[in-house]
């Protein structure tokens, strides 16, 4: 049984994992706390992780009817993420591992996202992985566990960051992604022709700065925006963002000749994205893998699952360190 922690950003999550159908996964969201700042305050996030982590660990084990002597391995996100937040999970995991004489499996948060869809499906290598979150917009060719080739990435904002900024410009609430998703449901996605950046057909890189600046100018030049105007802007932006993401993901499948696409990270919770990707993938003969909605955003279950695939637990506790800029490519 693997006990796993993810404290990479603002949510504290702990999972107790036996196999793909037998696990617990508890997540404590900090959205209400960071709402008043309009973004994540790293020091505040870390303090909340400290308050929550022991309680959530007990809860995750209780739900599996497990005690510490049942734990064979402790998995923890070591990066990338916010350093103060990562340090809480890493220190807690190391302390628990040392005291209970169990090994630790360090996991890269992005690796967690890459494999999250396969908690539900069987893995078949190679596949193309599109990771879209608040910190990442990356396309990888995944040849094996540990075999990642970077095919493309954002040259400026991550797509989740762009959602968050557009929500802030519209004064629509926090967190931006779910707010834009909700607001878009009543909006007209065809009202504004929002630029999609980097029109070059062959590129697998992304740019969201032009898209975001267009929305900024739209908002700044308007003397008044009604709720319905805001909904139209949200829906038009969301449509542009989803179109950009699909175009690059499809291009990656064409360029690699691989017709298996895994999409994960917080932005893959987006309802338009899920509908459009499902429709487009079917039309293009691409096998699409997306996590269940609750496993798109940060969670410790995906960290436990990645650790179970990696088989690299170690008793060399001093080698385990938080690294906010950890890479997998
Ligand atoms: O994977 P995640 O929980 O954390 C990171 O690793 O960054 O992703 C968080 C991002 C945020 O930018 C949030 O606004 C976005 O995912 N997000 C969404 C939706 N739900 C969360 N973006 C668009 N539509 C959503 N429904
Ligand atoms: Zn994440």
Topology:
Blueprint: E1 2-6, E2 12-19, E3 22-28, H1 31-35, H2 42-63, E4 73-79, H3 83-100, E5 104-108, H4 109-115, E6 127-132, E7 137-144, E8 147-153, H5 159-169, H6 176-184, H7 209-221, H8 227-256, E9 260-264, H9 271-284, E10 287-289, H10 300-310
Parallel strand pairs: 1-4, 4-5, 6-9, 9-10
Antiparallel strand pairs: 1-2, 2-3, 6-7, 7-8
The chain binds 5'-O-[(R)-(carboxyoxy)(hydroxy)phosphoryl]adenosine and zinc ion (ZN).
The site of 5'-O-[(R)-(carboxyoxy)(hydroxy)phosphoryl]adenosine has 19 residues, from helix 5 and helix 6.
Describe the structure.
- The protein has 329 residues and is of the alpha/beta class.
- It has 2 domains: 137 residues, ATPase, nucleotide binding domain (Nucleotidyltransferase, domain 5); 169 residues, ATPase, nucleotide binding domain (Nucleotidyltransferase, domain 5), CATH 3.30.420.
- It has 10 helices and 10 strands.
- The strands form 2 sheets. A 5-stranded mixed β-sheet has the order 3-2-1-4-5, with helices on both faces.
- Helix 6 crosses helix 8 and helix 8 packs parallel to helix 9.
- The longest helix has 30 residues.
- The protein is globular and about 60 Å long.
- Bound molecules: 5'-O-[(R)-(carboxyoxy)(hydroxy)phosphoryl]adenosine (KG4) and zinc ion.
- The site of zinc ion has 5 residues, from helix 4.
């Amino acid at each position: 049984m693997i006990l796993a922690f993810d404290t990479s950003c603002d949510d504290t999550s702990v999972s107790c994992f036996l196999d793909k159908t037998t696990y617990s996964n508890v997540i404590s969201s900090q959205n209400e706390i960071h709402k008043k700042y309009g973004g994540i305050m790293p020091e505040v996030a870390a303090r909340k992780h400290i308050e929550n982590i022991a309680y959530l660990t007990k809860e995750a084990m209780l739900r599996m009817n497990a005690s510490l002597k049942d734990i064979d391995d402790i998995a923890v996100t070591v990066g990338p993420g916010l350093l103060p937040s990562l340090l809480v999970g890493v220190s807690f995991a190391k302390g628990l591992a040392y005291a209970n004489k169990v090994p630790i499996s360090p996991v890269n948060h992005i690796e967690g996202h890459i494999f999250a869809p396969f908690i539900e499906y069987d893995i078949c290598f190679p596949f193309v992985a599109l990771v879209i979150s608040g910190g990442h917009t990356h396309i990888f060719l995944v040849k094996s566990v540990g075999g990642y080739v970077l095919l493309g990435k954002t040259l400026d904002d991550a797509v989740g960051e762009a959602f968050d900024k557009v929500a802030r410009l519209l004064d629509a609430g926090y967190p931006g992604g779910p707010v834009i998703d909700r607001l878009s449901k009543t909006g007209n996605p065809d009202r504004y022709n929002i630029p999609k950046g980097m029109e070059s057909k062959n590129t697998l890189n992304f740019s969201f700065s032009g898209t975001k600046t267009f929305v900024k100018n739209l908002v700044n030049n308007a003397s008044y925006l009604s709720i319905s105007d805001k909904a139209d802007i949200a829906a038009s932006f969301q449509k542009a963002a989803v179109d950009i993401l699909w175009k690059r993901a499809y291009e990656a499948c064409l360029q690699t000749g691989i017709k298996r696409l895994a999409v994960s990270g917080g932005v893959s919770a987006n309802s338009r994205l899920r509908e459009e990707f499902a429709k487009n993938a079917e039309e293009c003969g691409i096998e699409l893998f997306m996590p269940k909605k609750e496993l798109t955003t940060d969670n410790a279950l995906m960290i436990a699952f990645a650790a179970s695939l990696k088989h690299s637990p170690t008793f060399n506790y001093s080698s385990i360190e938080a690294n906010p800029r950890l890479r997998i490519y």
